[in-house]
Amino acid sequence: MPLSVPDRLADLPYAHLLTPHTGPLRSDERHDTVHFDGGEHRDESAAGAVFLECAFTGVALDGVRMRQARFTEVWAQAGRWVGCDLSESEWQDSAFTGGVLAGVAAHGSALRRTVFRGCKLEAVNLRAAVLRDVVFEDCLLRDVDFGDARLTDVSFPGSTLEEVRLRGAKLTKVDLRGAARLGLPDGHQGLRGAVISSTQLLELAPQFAHALGITVKD
Q1: Dihedral (CA of 156, 148, 145, 73) sign
Q2: Model pTM greater than 0.85?
Q3: Which of 20, 57, 63 is nearest to 41 (CA)?
């Protein structure tokens, strides 16, 4: 299982080391034990930046370019990441809690031991991304594209999936049993390697039958 996620800033193991951040974000800048608290960053560039043991609380990022940025042991709570470019970024031992990611480009990114808890992900592009040991807990995933991505040891407990695309994805030990709803417009495409419950199988049966050219009549 991925790392446990603290509920409070004070519970972070590096909380006592955090220093407040001031000023705009900049490309290729290194941030070590920095606290980004509130405020808004709009149309700034943090491409190639490094964030190590940092915390984001209530921060609004609008159109921020963070291509190829690296996030290690980062904790983000109740923030809004809208229209951001996170393509080819790297995430490890990090967590998003209670935030919103909308219109985010994260294709080709790599996420390892990362948790999304109580988040809303809408129109997020994770095509060709690599996810390993990732949990989406009690989240809403709407119009999220995992096309051609590689997912290993990924789970969705309590999450609702709407218009989530898996076509061309490679799944290994992906656990969908805890998902509250499976809205997969591609039907059976991309589900090879996933674990689903018998109830979910019955719900997906019409899509499977259609893909196989089977007509079901009573």
Answers
A1: positive
A2: yes
A3: 63
Q: Answer yes or no: are the C-beta atoms of 47 and 26 closer than 8 Å.
A: no
pLDDT tens string 154-200: 999 999 999 999 999 999 999 999 999 999 987 677 899 999 999 99
List the one residue out of 166, 173, 158, 148 whose CA is nearest residue 207.
166
Q: What is residue 85's DSSP assignment?
A: B
Alpha helices in the chain (DSSP H): 198-211
The Cα 168–Cα 214 span in angstroms is 23
Structure token pair of residue 15: 């909380």
* Residues listed for the chain: 218
Nearest to 133 by CA among 147, 150, 114, 117: 114
